[in-house]
Design goal:
globular, 8 strands, six-stranded mixed beta sheet, 27% strand, alpha/beta, 4 helices, single chain
């Protein structure tokens, strides 16, 4: 499972995720990405913790291998408020993410320094940012950097 002991997902459900991309709200694409990562966790029997964020951040589900509960909670998310990734980063760091895969799933309207801080402070195996960007038509994936962290634009 890539050396990971758990997966921590930070899921953006701010108001900007109500934007439409290919006839669907961006939040729908974000949910799809989160559910795909949940399937990966299930396949490798990794516990998952999910943190949702908009104006503030809150634990969406407790760290567990109850993939059904995680999925149901993810599907209930609705867009509202503004984007406060910093509060989600603070919550994620409290989960002691050593040897974790941390996934920030967002529409990209976040402060890059918050993602960089998470990568520097978390001691996770890997921090990735999956960005569902309605303005990135045809851009494809950005190749991973030489660092242990990467960004993927969808």
């Amino acid at each position: 499972a890539g050396g990971f002991t758990k997966i921590i997902m930070l899921i953006d459900c701010s108001g900007s995720t109500a934007s439409i991309y290919k006839d669907r709200p961006v939040l729908g694409w974000i949910k799809d990405a989160a559910l795909g990562l949940l399937a990966y966790a299930h396949l490798h029997r990794l516990p998952v913790a999910t943190i949702a964020f908009s104006d503030s951040a809150w634990p969406l589900t407790r760290e567990s291998a109850d993939y059904i509960a995680h999925g149901k909670a993810i599907l209930k998310l609705q867009p509202s408020g503004w984007t406060n990734l910093a509060s989600a980063v603070s919550l994620a760091l409290r989960l002691k993410p050593r040897k974790a895969l941390i996934a920030v799933i967002t529409d990209g309207l976040v402060e890059p320094r918050d993602v960089e801080y998470l990568a520097e402070q978390s001691k996770a195996n890997r921090v990735i940012a999956a960005i569902v960007d309605p303005n990135a038509e045809g851009k494809g994936a950005i190749p991973p950097s030489s660092r242990k962290n990467s960004t993927i634009r969808c």
